[in-house]
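ERR on first pass: missing label on line 2. Operator R.T. fixed the label and resubmitted. Corrected input:
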Amino acid sequence: MDPQRPQVTLRMLADRLGLHVSTVSRALHAKPEEGRRAASSATIARIRELADELGYQPNPHATSLRTQRSNLVGVLVPRLSDLVLATVYEGIQEAARAQGLSTFVTNTKDEPDTQRAQTEMMLARRVDGLIFGDARADGALLAETAARGVPFVLVSRHVAGHTSVTCDDPLGGRQAAEHLLGLGHRDFAVIAGEPYASTGIDRTRGFLERCAEDGVTVPPDRIVHSAFDARGGREAADRVLDTSGPQPTALFAVNDFAAIGAMGALRDRGLSPGQDIAVVGFNDTPLAAELPIPLTSIRSPMHEMGRRGLDLLTRLLAGEPAPSERLAPTLVVRASSDRPPRS
Amino acid sequence: MDPQRPQVTLRMLADRLGLHVSTVSRALHAKPEEGRRAASSATIARIRELADELGYQPNPHATSLRTQRSNLVGVLVPRLSDLVLATVYEGIQEAARAQGLSTFVTNTKDEPDTQRAQTEMMLARRVDGLIFGDARADGALLAETAARGVPFVLVSRHVAGHTSVTCDDPLGGRQAAEHLLGLGHRDFAVIAGEPYASTGIDRTRGFLERCAEDGVTVPPDRIVHSAFDARGGREAADRVLDTSGPQPTALFAVNDFAAIGAMGALRDRGLSPGQDIAVVGFNDTPLAAELPIPLTSIRSPMHEMGRRGLDLLTRLLAGEPAPSERLAPTLVVRASSDRPPRS
DNA sequence: GCAAGATACCCAAACGTTTGGCCCAATCGT
DNA sequence: ACGATTGGGCCAAACGTTTGGGTATCTTGC
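pass 2 clean. output:
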């Protein structure tokens, strides 16, 4: 099976150099700043040289076993096939690599049972800490996990009482409202995402608050929950548009994919997004700018969120304080909402 | 930091039961079918009970160190934020979990240097095997890796001489051509993807071959390479449409996202996809059906590809034969290509 | 009643590190 | 010249498993 994979060990290096394995170990770890050096600089050089030559790579299992630290972090996301979380994870991974950490990632589909099972699985793998990208406003998993003394942070979504890195979602919602109000819109519909996700909740709340400041209210039947994907957006839009009475002139979806699905639903009714009805999405997915009708969206720093999330976790692991962070979103206006409401 | 995380070990169980640690170990592994039992059934029951009660989880580092097997597989993909590969990875992970394996995944951005570095990183982590989702037709990394005796399989893309699970891409290309030819189209453009990816190469080849069978040829300046995302598709479409002479009546993009970008470019020129020019994509991404103009696409079994890929790898790890597989694509017709060319 | 199997365990080594101590020789201070 | 320091390195234990080999005790066949 493995014709030639004789892994190089410390002992091999030691034997070949006539040194003790502990000396080699110390030499390879010795930071120059250390007071008491592990060996003479000449010996250290010899050791380093041989290690490079033979391509020595420390066995991480042995190291973890000995040090009781795995340098592994577990990441839980609803789905990796959701571009938003995939991008957040890319940020996490990038930051992790910079710190010499590796990451396990797994899908939980936003199902509490799966979340719990995967959390256990991660702990069984002896991760040093966890990053939840799928925190639910309801549910007790986070509290229990915290009670067990497991270090973790949340990204993308937040839950009171736990460290998190999120987009300033209320602000994002406000920006969307401000933009549409500025164009003269007064009749809105909101596709609000899943009811258990703080992202959807906060974006919707911010939107409604800003509307209220201008004396505009959005009737409850114009605010519908939805999955965070295109199909969810289409279905939600269908539900909203099926209600009787005057149609909205603008639609805010808390997620770009939901917005895309909604645009499909609009088209099916002969409404042209951007002409007959304004549409604003959220996240400013790379796709948004390239769509046939480019989508106005609130850009959220997804990648950055991941990086900060991991940085917070390492701070937590080091016993340092790790205050939650909220990253600012920015409005990006495109053709799907660049004109006032019709007549 | 860790208030209460006293990990349960074999020794704890053993001590508490007055048994030897090896007895406990055997008892917990004993498959009923084993001939020589590890202990009396009463003892085994006692052990199992206590293990459950205390929530014993074997330390994977200790196990890996001892058995020289990590039960880890490394997965390399161009980008996880590419929905196609993210979905393939979901399949891999699902199959891995079923086998008690865990997966590391990492982005290589299709850059040879990064691919090499990440391969090393995976091996340093002592993965049992690798799955490449980013194999390049050029380059020597695969050959070198094989020469080192590292077990691996390819998914999504193939390279001669290595085990792989792919979509039958030539067939998919043919299906696209057949569909468009059947509608009466004769003037084609092809957005062919990256030149080093077998997916793009094979899909394009299949398409052209099928055309040739009907005596239709696609001029070289109508076949353009592109990145596998919306922006790449838009740019490629712009290039194709900027060429002088009569415009094509149908466009085949080897990837849904490229197709979406292309539709944007068409719109910018006042061409209506589905009306003025037929568009066919590839992969049948969930988005395709929900777009404002639903996209005809060749459905590829992305999830399944991942599962099979992992299954092949485990077969390889078990020393069994692991022949390459090619999964069948299917055509899904939608509004972007459901009518004959204009006059 | 006794050799031959089973049965039910225990022993100990090994996987590759890390790390607190220890030891020897050379250097230093005075 | 001699005790103290220090530089350079060795020793051994430990992390938690797995596993090839024991060794008593109990059956069993005859």
